[in-house]
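In the design runs reported in the main text, the only information available to the sequence generator was the tokenized backbone. The following block is the verbatim input for one such run; it is reproduced so that readers can re-run the procedure and compare outputs position by position.
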């Protein structure tokens, strides 16, 4: 009632609303004010985090928070009056617009933001332009003598740093991928297992920096998580300065274009494309754009929480999600963050990227000269799954409607600048008749693709057009044949793409023809653009040519996509192709459908990976703390080699192993709690609550099912909050995962519940993470793809065991991040097979205990093997079996 009467001071309104069970809550959110006053500055969105960011004393307990919020508001207001206010530029003008948009803070801040003497410049004129630079020549072929590699490592680790043998041999091994290669299509490949704590990053940055310097070439380091990218950026400072003497950056973080702010979309949003709350978000993003380091909106210096304060997908709409960039035709092209990142990376010594981008670039990159040739995949155990999704083909309603919008443009009601082919290539259409006809033909054929409301029409049994007809038949067949039990539980359902009913085959044939009818004019249009480029008209300037180049590139990408869909459909009625796994699916969540799809995956995605990434490269390393399999008998490298793609380029990879220097026996212990029965939800929730209480927070709880995570959170969050033990959860709290981890890291009494993404994406050294609790043994989900790969492996349950061991090792890896860390790893499982225990580092104590015993050990901080018994922990656990 108070909040609806007068605007009240709040911190993170959506989170407060969520905790109170209100659908909506608004007021004077301090985070919004912070984003206005200090854009591009880091702040953990909690009272404690805000206190730190504003350099105020943090509140001692919840009862001090209201007074603190007032002090924080006062501090933000005072910052606006400070003559040294760093982010003053543009604030006054932005505040005028925000006032018109009825932003609640506008009235509060207005008296304190002085009108500037001279009119402030419009954001788009103040951003710097990038410079065109000459092409970098091919790198020189150089050898890296071991002594130089080790000398560089000493230089990077610093004077007087302890010499770590594991790190030294790791650096020497990593250097071997930089040797000149002997044969075409045969790169040097190294697989390097690097135990936690050996100093892996500097281990490979030493030879990388040496080689980049000596050869004039670029090294790419690819990671799976944003967290490691941040860390790499920081560590690279030891080897490279922030800027070279000519002002260019030697180290560049490169992400997919959908991560960056698109200035044209922002301009559109500021000029009426967005209304209401999203328009306020656009103003705050514009404030940030003036101060950002590189325009990266997702995981860069835009606070991760900003988007979630505004609910709708405002942030995504400001990026270039759908490849609608008009390149040189864009008025902001010379200032564009995406173009700048691309140019900077071509000139960089070190490019920090992610697995998906490296693969997409290799598969359909525009510029062959810019393809990475010296590549280090850190978090290399994720390369397989990244390749799996990069080389997948999916024909779904959502994907098809995207293609329709790209060809035809948006349908009614849609605001904004999104335009179809005709509008983007209007000048070509009027100059070149054949080109114009091809565009018209593509637009006409594109009508066959699903349009707005397709899902509803499918539900009502009234599909329209050949693609909707196909999706309708696919949906019906999937419901008819699904036996997964997902139907009742409200989850996604699927069925194999074999022995399909006649309706599906028939509809697939008609749909394939419709797709071919779209592809033909697009190919023709590509040919016409090429012809125009070969004999350009007078009016076509450099910018125009660049735009046509861009259009050709995105055309060929769509042509490939259509061809892949057609081949997917052609196969539906025929014999199965042993190289692929095909299936039909209805994507659902909480019983609500959101897509219908036909999927195709490579049985072994490392085949295309080897072709497009490995073969053109000269040296590639895959490295990780969990690359090898910790099996008791057999070759620990077997699966790592198979999952690296090395087998497909007929080369023997170099293998390197550096064990972790941590003393796990005295720092960590595994507790297998045997008295929580499977399916006993109250028992599971109670166990989590008591474990968090015993450990006084600092617990990372990992779940394999979102439903159980929510149920457990719902039962215990209130109880824990009353004890001053805050509990946060993915899929419950309206906060992005990166920010959740920041909050968890920042508060040693906080605990965090999450799913897969947290299993190896969390790097929280120190007291904040002192206990990891797994709800169960992480068995793989027996879906169609998993079953096909398991059958192909020929190793039956050993295939599953390897996956579980890897998951356990990754989750365990969250616990001990540095020499001082210590803690407990708990698995709530009455049946934990002994054969999986080898997943944990040698020497780690492993106990099968009751919940009471576990609580006692955690509460008293007891860790390590029971020496008196004269047995190793593993023996003991096995004896108890
Ligand atoms: S060049 Fe493309 S991505 Fe960059 S601002 Fe313009 S439209 Fe957006």
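Verbatim output:
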């Amino acid at each position: 009632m108070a909040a609806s009467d007068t605007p009240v001071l709040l911190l993170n309104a959506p989170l407060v609303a969520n905790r109170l069970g209100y659908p909506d809550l608004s007021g004077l959110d301090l985070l919004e004010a912070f984003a206005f006053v200090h854009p591009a500055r880091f702040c953990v969105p909690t009272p404690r985090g805000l206190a730190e960011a504003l350099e105020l004393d943090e509140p001692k307990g919840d009862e001090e928070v209201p007074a603190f919020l007032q002090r924080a508001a006062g501090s933000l207001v005072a910052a606006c009056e400070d003559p040294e206010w760093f982010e003053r530029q543009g604030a006054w003008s932005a505040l005028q617009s925000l006032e018109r948009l009825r932003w609640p803070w506008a009235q509060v801040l207005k008296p304190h933001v002085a009108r500037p003497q001279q009119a402030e410049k419009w954001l788009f004129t103040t951003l710097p332009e990038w410079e065109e630079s000459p092409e970098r020549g091919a790198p020189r072929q150089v050898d890296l003598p071991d002594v130089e590699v080790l000398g560089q490592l000493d230089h990077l680790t610093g004077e007087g740093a302890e010499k770590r043998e594991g790190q030294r041999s790791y650096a020497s091994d990593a250097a071997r991928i930089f040797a000149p290669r002997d044969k075409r299509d045969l790169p040097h490949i190294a697989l390097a297992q690097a135990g936690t704590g050996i100093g892996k990053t500097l281990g490979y940055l030493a030879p990388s920096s040496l080689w980049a310097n000596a050869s004039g070439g670029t090294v790419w380091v690819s990671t799976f998580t944003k967290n490691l990218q941040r860390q790499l950026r920081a560590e690279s400072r030891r080897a490279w300065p922030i800027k070279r003497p000519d002002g260019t950056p030697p180290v560049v973080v490169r992400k997919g274009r959908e991560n960056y702010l698109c200035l044209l979309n922002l301009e559109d949003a500021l000029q009426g494309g967005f209304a209401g709350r999203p328009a306020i978000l656009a103003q705050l993003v514009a404030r940030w754009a003036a101060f950002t380091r590189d325009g990266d909106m997702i995981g860069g210096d835009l606070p991760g929480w900003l988007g979630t304060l505004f609910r709708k997908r405002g942030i995504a709409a400001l990026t270039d999600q759908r490849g609608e960039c008009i390149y040189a035709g864009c008025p902001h092209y010379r200032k564009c963050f995406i173009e700048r990142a691309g140019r900077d990376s071509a000139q960089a010594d070190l490019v920090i990227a992610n697995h998906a981008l490296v693969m997409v670039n290799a598969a359909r990159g525009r510029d062959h000269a810019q393809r990475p040739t010296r590549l280090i995949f850190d978090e290399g155990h994720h390369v397989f799954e990244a390749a799996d999704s990069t080389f997948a083909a999916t024909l779904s309603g959502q994907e098809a409607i995207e293609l329709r919008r790209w060809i035809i443009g948006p349908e009614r009601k849609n605001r904004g600048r999104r335009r179809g082919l005709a509008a983007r290539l209007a000048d070509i259409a009027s100059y070149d008749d054949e080109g114009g006809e091809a565009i018209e033909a593509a637009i006409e054929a594109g009508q066959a693709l699903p349009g707005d409301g397709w899902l509803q029409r499918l539900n009502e049994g009234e599909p329209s057009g050949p693609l909707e007809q196909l999706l309708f038949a696919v949906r019906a067949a999937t419901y008819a044949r699904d036996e997964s039990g997902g139907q009742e539980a409200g989850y996604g359902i699927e069925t194999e793409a074999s022995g399909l009913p006649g309706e599906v085959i028939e509809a697939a044939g008609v749909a394939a023809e419709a797709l071919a009818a779209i592809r033909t004019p697009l190919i023709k249009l590509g040919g016409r653009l090429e012809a125009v480029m070969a004999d350009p008209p007078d009016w076509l300037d450099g910018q125009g040519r660049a735009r046509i180049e861009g259009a050709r590139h995105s055309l060929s990408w769509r042509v490939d996509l259509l061809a892949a869909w057609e081949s997917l459909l052609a196969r539906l009625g025929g014999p199965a192709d042993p190289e692929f796994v095909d299936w039909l699916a209805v994507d659902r969540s909480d019983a609500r459908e959101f897509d219908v799809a036909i999927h195709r995956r490579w049985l072994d995605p490392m085949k295309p990976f080897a072709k497009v990434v490995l073969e053109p490269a000269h040296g590639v390393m895959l490295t990780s703390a969990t690359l090898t399999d910790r099996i008791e008998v057999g070759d620990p490298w077997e699966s790592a080699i198979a999952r690296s793609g090395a087998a497909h380029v007929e080369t023997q990879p170099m293998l390197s192993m550096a064990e972790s220097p941590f003393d796990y026996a005295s720092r960590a212990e595994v507790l297998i709690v045997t008295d929580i029965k499977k399916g006993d939800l109250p028992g599971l929730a109670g166990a989590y609550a008591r474990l968090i209480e015993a450990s006084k927070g600092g617990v990372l709880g990992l779940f394999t099912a979102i439903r159980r995570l929510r149920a457990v959170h719902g039962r215990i969050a209130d109880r824990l909050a009353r004890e001053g033990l805050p509990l946060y959860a993915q899929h419950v709290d309206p906060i992005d995962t990166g920010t959740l981890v920041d909050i968890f890291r920042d508060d040693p009494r906080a605990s965090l519940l999450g799913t897969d993404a947290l299993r190896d994406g969390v790097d929280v050294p120190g007291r904040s993470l002192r206990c990891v609790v797994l709800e169960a043994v992480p068995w793989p989900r027996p879906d169609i793809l998993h079953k096909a790969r398991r059958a192909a492996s020929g190793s039956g349950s050993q295939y599953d065991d390897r996956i579980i061991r890897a998951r356990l090792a990754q989750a365990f890896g969250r616990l001990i991040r540095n020499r001082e860390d210590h803690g407990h790893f708990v698995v709530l499982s009455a049946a934990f097979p002994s054969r999986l225990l080898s997943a944990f580092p040698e020497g780690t104590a492993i106990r099968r205990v009751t919940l009471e015993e576990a609580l006692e050990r955690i509460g008293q901080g007891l860790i390590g093997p029971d020496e008196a018994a004269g047995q190793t922990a593993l023996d003991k656990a096995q004896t108890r079996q």
